[in-house]
Amino acid sequence: MVYAIIDLGSNSIRLSIFKYDGEKIKLLTNKKVMAGLASYTRNGILTQEGISKACTVLNKFKIIIQNSPAKGYALFATASLRNIKNREEVTEQIKIRTGMAPEILAGSEEARLGFVAIKRYYDINDGVTIDIGGGSTELVVFENKKIKYLTSIPIGSLNLQNKYVKNIAATKKEMKKMRKVTRKALEKLDWERKKYAELYAIGGTARAVLDVTKEFFEVPSKERSFTDTNLKHIMKRLCSDDSLEYKAVYKVVPERIFSFCGGIIILNEIVKHFGIQRITISKNGIRDGYFWDKVVHQLAEEKRKAVDETREDFIEDANTSEM
């Protein structure tokens, strides 16, 4: 089975085409466009320019899917549509202009699917998972391999930076404000306050921080983890009065210059809040979780029901013939 998944996010729009052979999942195609839809939101409303941007990308992805071996597709939206006031209008325009109907994921469902992706590929026990998107951040606390708490916070790398950073590079005052806003959101969580050594992160912000870490520390190219100490060092560079210090960071991830500072501040505050010591960046994300949970499992369930119904019909026919 080959299937396509499109993730309509606040910062990027991504297309993944997966192949499932009954045992393993293989990623055949992975495309990304930094659409920055959160930047096209005015007073909680996605503008016509933003809608057109989304439709242009979706139509390009549609052509890729049509020219691929994919037998079906799913399109889901996260905070990009979940957090806007005109989501019904936007959804309808997307349907008309692309022929595709987006499923809007609830924040809790987005968090759960991220956990599904991580649990499938990592041997986890206790810890925290995080998905820092452009318009929201999803958190899961898990113990004994099971979810204990999960939530979605309407603060993401792009909307946080758009709101509090006037120019391209954030000032110390602006960074302080972003830290304060993020900290307050975390303090509102009605969760038991515990320390967890491990954090598993998915999403573009997390991967960008990993790239910066590899640039400044002796981290092997194939390594997927870094420490809280590494993170603190990067934060110090971003807060430096020496422009060469923070420019060196942005040179590593120039495509995220309008969201990286907001994203790493969110990550750093979460690391401090839970006492995290090691951050592991997952190769797999919500699209993997969606494919496994909503496509593979659903098909398996449909086949199981079909077998059960066939068995019931057989038993009923057999009983009837004996009468």
Automatic annotation (TrEMBL):
Gene3D superfamilies with a match to the protein in the record: 3.30.420.40, Exopolyphosphatase. Domain 2 (3.30.420.150)
Q: Which organism is it from?
A: Taurinivorans muris
The superkingdom of the source organism is Bacteria
Q: Which Pfam families match?
A: Ppx-GppA
Q: Tell me the protein's name.
A: Ppx/GppA phosphatase N-terminal domain-containing protein
Q: Which residues form the Ppx/GppA phosphatase N-terminal domain?
A: 17-295
